[in-house]
Amino acid sequence: MQRLKSQFLRRSRRVRMKLRKKSRGRLRLSVFRSSQHIYAQVIDDTKGATLATASSLDKELRSTLKSGAGLDAAREVGKLLSSRAKAAGVSEVYFDRGGYLYHGRIKALAEAAREGGLSF
């Protein structure tokens, strides 16, 4: 178990460092996926501030979602995050998938955020 966690942390650091080199001053859209929920936030690393957040635990989404762990939940979180980011004046970000594969819920969230108007 410890080995898997350390591999995940190394992979997420590697992904984040590669993206930072290519980010060109854009903000970071970071995603965290648990077994029951999905969370996303837009972060300004230079200021150390979070500008927009969304998760499957939000009151707006909790009543409409059957489960916080499905593809539908990830799509709704992506749409909600993109609308909140647009309200905060953010239109360009870079997608930090962490150590997760770009597949399933992570991909669904990213595509919904793109449809909502974020470009990455």
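Second entry:
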Amino acid sequence: MSHAEELEIKGYTQFAFDTRLAAWAKHTISISAPILSDPSYEKWWRHQRTWFVGVDAMPNDSKGRLPDGPPLAGEVINFVGTQFGFNGPWHKGQLSVCFPGYPQRDSQESEAQHKFRLTRDAAHVDGLYGEGPAKRRHFREAHQFILGIPLNAAAEEDSPLVVWQGSHLIMQDMFAQAFAGIAEAQWSKVDVTDAYHAARQRCFETCRRVIVHAQPGESYIIQKFALHGVAPWTGISDSGAFRMIAYFRPLSPIAIGR
């Protein structure tokens, strides 16, 4: 099965080791320490400092290159060029870092929210935000794809990404029905909370939860509507242990079609 077919059927596809991507990952992790200790990024620490969210924290340029580093290159980069017509510009990448004990309960989290993170990996669809005290859901932004690039060697038990296989098809149909007959410019005003929760439950009941685990030099693409999350850390809690992944989610004009 080709990568394009896997993405269409499963909602994700993984790429094998690539020396070009490995060089990029090696350089990126070598300059990551100052990012984690930068006071301006203190806002990105979550769950009693067991997760550094790191949105837009990577100092890459529009070509994905970090200071004094190699270009962002490899088979997966070629794939997004041919499959999505995306050849940049690359936004500032997310530096997602988890540590042993993730997730500890945040002070602002309810017991139910924390339990959902523990038992359902905080499963979500990107670009669909919960807003206000009631966390009503609105579709605020669409991505072309989600690209994950592991930066350090980590075990499968060390808070990996998880995806509900085939969930993108359920979510895609949910959005199509919710926005039927509504102008695209008005989609963000539609409250899709109830429809989303029902679709998410169908995903839990009918889609296989898959751990998407990779090592430096490897990578993966997640379909933009796939239900995904981060698993709790169940690995060995050695001193200094962590897992670090760079994520890119290029924005696109909102579109529901496959």
